[in-house]
Design goal:
- This protein is α+β, with helices and mostly antiparallel strands.
- The chain folds into 3 domains: 63 residues; 51 residues; 142 residues, Alpha-macroglobulin, receptor-binding domain (Immunoglobulin-like), CATH 2.60.40.
- It is 16% helix and 35% strand.
- The protein is built from 3 helices and 17 strands.
- The protein has a 5-stranded antiparallel sheet with strand order 6-5-8-13-10, with no helix packed on it. It has a 5-stranded antiparallel sheet with strand order 11-12-9-15-16, with no helix packed on it. Strands 1, 2, 3 and 4 form a 4-stranded antiparallel sheet that branches.
- Helix 1 packs antiparallel against helix 2.
- The longest helix has 18 residues.
- The protein is elongated.
- The N and C termini lie far apart (52 Å).
């Protein structure tokens, strides 16, 4: 591993490459090879989280291997239907055919009225030819006021402050600029522009990280996605702006302290909870850290 060449291989990628090798081996006994391949596929599917495998690189590797498996087993043309049953109550059946491979996955939301306290039984009744791959997921909406700080194993800490902008002379060169107030503010005025400052402290160097910064509701970002003249000293590589957040991408996050700043405009009055900043490795899911929520009021 060096500054210019690194491997981010993880178990899903290794298993995907092994699956491709098993499928590529010619000759017999085919049944034994396909039995091993089926176990690898089941393992890969059990490691999927929220529709992907840890990173874009790992997800691409796994998808290539799964496509080869579908072609080898003839599963590219399924013809079956599935009827979900929850505690004896049958839901509407779902049909799968060759066109299903090019359509989004089918999501079946169980009605809350069908669930009961204690044990619940969910059954999937399949009729027809083909293999059914499914995931059961439970989501909970937490109503607590305070969102705890995300503590990951990376040791990265991030804090966020908002500052009012005012016309003042830059102490570096005396130029009249919009300068941030020394003290952070918690109350914003609608129609005014503010600076958000993220202070990131890392115990070591990390490669390829993304910093996802949620925006306060009722505010709009003022971020340019292209770097202007004289701005090549920015340590991040790319930025993407969305209605609800700004994502900064960096090829490397050095050890020590780094600062990210951007402008936003307060628009809609109200009291808001701003979700925590999240930092994670693009190719290493074990690199993950976050800050605390911020409360602001717009008047």
């Amino acid at each position: 591993e060096s500054a210019s060449f690194c491997h981010w291989n993880r178990d899903p990628e290794t298993t995907a490459l092994a699956l491709q090798a098993i499928l590529a081996v010619p000759g017999e006994p085919r049944d034994e090879r396909m039995a091993v391949a089926a176990k690898a596929v089941r393992w890969l599917l059990s490691r999927r989280e929220e529709g992907y495998w840890g990173s874009t690189q790992a997800t691409a590797r796994v998808l290539f291997a799964l496509v080869e498996y579908l072609e080898a087993t003839g599963e590219t043309a399924p013809a079956f239907s599935v009827t979900p049953v929850i505690n004896g109550q049958m839901l509407a059946p779902v049909r799968f055919d060759a066109r299903s491979l090019f359509q989004p996955e089918v999501t079946i939301t169980l009605p809350a009225s069908a669930l009961r306290a204690g044990e619940n039984q969910i059954t999937l009744r399949k009729q027809g030819a083909g293999s059914l791959y499914y995931t059961v997921r439970a989501r909970e909406f937490v109503t607590q006021e305070e969102i705890p700080v995300l503590v990951g194993g990376a040791g990265i800490a991030v804090t966020r402050t908002y500052h009012r902008l005012r016309s003042d002379r830059d102490p570096k060169d005396g130029t009249l600029r919009l300068m941030p107030s020394p003290r952070p503010v918690e109350h914003l005025r609608a129609g005014e522009t503010y600076l958000s400052r993220l202070t990131i402290r890392s115990p070591r160097r990390y490669e390829h990280v993304v910093i996802e910064e949620p925006l306060p509701a009722g505010c709009e970002p003022l971020v340019r996605e292209r770097t202007g003249e004289g701005e090549w000293n920015r340590w991040w590589t790319h930025v993407e702006t969305r209605d609800h957040q700004i994502a900064f991408f960096a090829r490397q996050l050095d050890a020590g302290e780094r600062v990210l700043e951007y402008h936003f405009r307060a628009s809609v009055p109200g009291e808001y909870h701003v979700m925590p900043t999240v930092i994670q490795g693009m190719y290493d899911p074990e690199v993950r850290a976050g800050g605390a929520e911020t409360r602001v009021g717009v008047r």
